[in-house]
Design a protein that fits this description.
5 helices, alpha/beta, about 150 residues, about 40% helix, globular, six-stranded mixed beta sheet
Length: about 150
């Protein structure tokens, strides 16, 4: 599965004022469950991502993080995107603040799909042109297009 297929403008938050890693994860959790008919609670999405963060930061460097987790109550993978005005401390490897967050939730049993989607996201987000496109996009459709171009090549 190509992660670009999972990114929709409705699950992209722009210029959100988040002052902490916790608040960024809460915002991503809200985006992940917004509009879903399956009744998944934002608290479950937040807990899944927080539990993974306790194992080690998902901050990749260059202002990017990919918080992720697995949930038994999920049937299909979901992705949400958050672009922040001001980066937050995400304990990234390069110690730079994170302003682009791509959250990934997968069904609990989807181990190989989880790893494959993470690898594709990491490859796509390692391209400076992609990051510049996300940062300069005027709206959620522009962010989606920048990601789709990058992830289409993964």
């Amino acid at each position: 599965m190509n992660p670009a297929e999972l990114i929709t403008p409705e699950r992209i938050g722009l210029e959100t004022d988040c002052s902490s890693k916790k608040r960024a994860l809460e915002t991503l959790a809200d985006l992940l469950v917004d509009g879903a008919a399956d009744g998944l609670a934002a608290s479950a999405a937040f807990e899944a991502m927080s539990a993974r963060e306790k194992l080690g930061s998902t901050g990749l460097g260059h202002g990017v993080a990919i918080p992720h987790g697995r949930l038994a109550e999920l049937d299909t993978p979901r992705i949400a995107v958050l672009r922040l005005d001001q980066g937050v401390d995400f304990e990234a490897m390069d110690h730079e603040p994170v302003d682009i967050l791509i959250a990934l939730l997968v069904p609990e049993e989807a181990t190989s799909e989880h790893l494959d989607l993470l690898a594709q996201l990491a490859r796509g987000l390692s391209q400076p042109d992609t990051l510049a496109g996300i940062r300069r996009a005027a709206d959620s459709t522009g962010v989606q297009q920048a990601l789709s171009r990058a992830l289409g090549d993964t």
